[in-house]
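Feature request, filed as a ticket because there's no other form

It would be nice if the structure record came with a short human-readable summary line next to the tokens. Right now we just get the raw output. Example of a typical job, pasted below so the devs can see what we mean:
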Amino acid sequence: MKKLFLVLALLFNSYWGICQMSTHSVKAGVSYVQFGSGDLVGFNYYNEYNQSITPYMTIAPSLHVGYGSRDEGYARFTKASISLDPNFFVSPMRFDRSKIRLGIGPSLRYTSSSLPTSYGYSLVGPIPDRPTDQATYAIDLNYTRPMNYWAMGYTVALEGEVTLDRGWSTGIRASFQNYTSGGMVANIGLNVGYQF
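Raw output as currently delivered:
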């Protein structure tokens, strides 16, 4: 009986120690996004849940929604994506009210794109009932890759965070995502979080 009591007391103390160390927080952020080599620019919105493992390590799954576009003459090309990123963060520099976090993790992304593989303009000819100096142009679009697709990749993130009063925090984040489809996404933006 004494051994059972001792084992239960040790388990309770271990559980209590882990619970005291563990913190939860949620974040929401908005960032400037570049798809590919900067050919499409736009915005990215994300929600993130943070679970501290130790004071220096955090698991942070996040959901990102991004949109970018580019105008090319009379054509407008767009790209929209949604991705799920379960990242692992390490805080190598941690201070009283601030910290710097480095993160890495896999990324699963669904993309819908209207950006063609190639495009061009061709002269069709004069418009009927218009002056002959006005010409009509047709836009030739060539699609050799899928417009809607899933891709696996990885995320690398660098974040600075400052803790404010009553559990609130704010920060700045830069991240880079690379995918098996050849797509790249670069983000830089601000976030706000709440610790509970």
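Something like this underneath would help us a lot:
Residues 22-113+147-195 form a domain with the Porin fold (CATH 2.40.160.20).
Residues 14-21 have pLDDT under 50 and may be disordered.
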